[in-house]
Write a structure and sequence with these properties.
The chain has about 100 residues and is an alpha+beta fold. It has a 3-stranded antiparallel sheet with strand order 1-2-3. It starts with a strand and ends with a helix.
């Protein structure tokens, strides 16, 4: 689906849900891949799995909430590419990413 990104071009987004982990969908998008908040497979790292529930999306939050979080993340990525400044909280990425994506 095409998703609006405020002040930037819309992006084609794909969201894949798994039965095993419904609260951790894999979200991918077209466009530039440069981002400090992507997993090694290119999927968006919108929240940190060990974070408290209040900081993450859950199935009961609904699809509109997930789309809003995705749009905000894509805005932050575009802003970061343009200004070299990440707007929002961050967790250092590294080797552990492989474990977090699954």
């Amino acid at each position: 689906m095409m998703l609006d990104v405020p002040h930037y071009e819309p992006r084609l987004v794909e969201i894949l849900f798994s039965v095993e982990r419904p609260n951790r969908p894999k979200i991918s998008t077209d466009g530039p891949l440069e981002s400090p908040h992507r997993f090694s497979d290119g999927c968006l790292c919108i929240w940190y799995p060990p974070d408290p529930v209040s900081a993450k999306w859950r199935v009961q939050d609904g699809l509109l909430s997930l789309l809003g979080m995705t749009s905000a993340h894509l805005f932050r990525e575009a802003w970061w590419r343009e200004m070299d400044d990440w707007l929002g909280s961050e967790v250092e990425h590294g080797v552990q990413d492989k474990d977090l994506e699954e």
